[in-house]
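[job 4471] stage=fold_predict status=RUNNING
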Amino acid sequence: MVRRLMALYPVIMAGGSGTRFWPLSRQARPKQFLPLASKYPLITDTAARLKGLASMKNLFIVCGPLHAKAASKLVKGLPKQNLLVEPVARNTAPAIALATVQVAARDPKGILIVLPSDHHVANPEGFRQTLAEAARVAEAGHIVTLGIKPHRPETGYGYIQLGEPLEGGGRKVKAFKEKPDLETARGYVDSGEFLWNGGIFVFRADVMLEAFAKHMPEMKKGLEALRAAAGKRTFSSVLKRVFPKLPSISIDYGVMEKAENIAVLPGDFGWSDVGSFSAIPEVRPADARGNVISGPESIVVDCDGCVVLGDKRPLAVVGMKDVVVVDAGDAVLVVPKDKSQDVRKVVEALKAGKRQKFL
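[job 4471] inference complete, writing C-alpha cells
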C-alpha cells in the first residue's frame, strides 16, 4: 500500500485512435478498449493499477464523444461528473487543460497524475511508488515527467536528457529529444544520461495553470472561460463553445519544452507503450519458440517469433518467422513484425477508398 501524503487526482487520457492495431482497433473501439496485455482492456488495467494511490472519486477520464460510453462502462465506479468529454479532438495540451480546470475548481493545489490509457505496467506496485514520489516532487512546485529507464536503443520513443539533481528528489530536465535514429539511440543508452519519455506527468493544478498562462497565452481567454464555469451547470455549454477554439498542440510543445520548473523522475517498473503488434511479446507470455498465440481455434505449426491473434474460426499459420497474423472476424491482417508500424497505412488506404464499414 502506497502512503498518500496529499490529494491525488489521476487523469486517464483516452482520446487516442490506435490505428496501428487495425483490424482489432476500430473508430468506435480504439486500442485502449482492447484486451491486448491481459484479459481486460488496457483502460481497465490503467484504472485498476491506481488502487491504493488515489480514490475513485478523484479519478478523471478525458475522451471524445464517440468513446465516452465505453470508457464509463469499462472503468466501473467512475463518477459521472468525472468523465470529461472533449467536443472535438485538440491534442494533449487542451485535454490536460480541461482536466486541470476541473481539479482546480475542487482543490486548487490538488496534484494531477496524467496517464495514457493504453500503456502496460508489469510492476504496478513499483509504478505506484514512483508516482507517489513524483507527487511529493510536484508538491514543491515542479511539473514532473516520468522517465523510463531504457532497456534497448529504441527509435520509436522520444528521450529525456537528465540534468542536475533537485533538492527533494528528481532531476532537472536538460533537454527533450525527438525520436532518434538507431545510431543516436545507441549513444543515448550507452551514455546513461537519457530516459525514454513515457508521456506521464504529475503536477499541482495551480502550477500547471500558471504554466499555461505563461507559455500558451493564446489559451488564456478560453481557459478563463472554462475556469469561471467549472463546477457549474453552464460548464457543458461553455465547453462546447470554447474548446474547439483552443490551439491544437501537444503538452510537450506547449509547456514541457518551454517551462523552467520541469523535473524528471526515473522509473523502472516494466513499462511498455504497447505501440504496435510487434510489442505484444513484451506484455504477453510466449511459447518456447517465441510465439504469442491467442484464440480458441488458432493453430501454429513450425513458427518462430510470431504473433497470432485469432477469432472464433480456425486460424492456421505454418512455417513462418517473425510475422503478425490477426483475424478480427470481418478482416485479416498479415504483416512482418518489423513493419508493424505501417499498419496505420492500411487505415489510411481504407479511408481513401471510403470503405467506412471496416474503419
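[job 4471] summary: The radius of gyration is 21 Å.
[job 4471] exit 0
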